[in-house]
Amino acid sequence: MEFQTPNRAAINNKRVIVRVDFNVPLEEYRGKWLVKDDRRLRDTRRTISYLLDHRAKVILIAHLGRPKGKPIQKFSLKPIAEYLKNQFHWPIKFVPSTIGEEVTTAIQAMEPGTAILLENLRFQTEEKDNNSLFAKTLAGYGDVYINEAFSASHREHASIVGIPKYLPSFAGFSLQNEAQTLADLMDKPKRPFIVVLGGAKISDKVGAIKHLAKLADIVLVGGATANNFLKAEGFEIYRSFVEEKVNAKKGEVQDYTKLAAQIISQHKTERILKDGYLPLPKLLYPIDVVAAPSLDTELKRQTQIIDLSHDMKDKEENIQLLYLDIGPNTQKLYAEIIAGAGTVFWNGPMGVWENPLFAAGTRAIGKAIVNTKAKTVLGGGDTIAAAHHFQVEKKFKYVSAAGGAALEFLSGQILPGLKPLLIGK
Question: What are the residues whose beta carbons fall under 8 Å from the beta carbon of 4, sequence distance 6 or more?
Answer without folding.
Answer: 169, 170, 171, 421, 422, 423
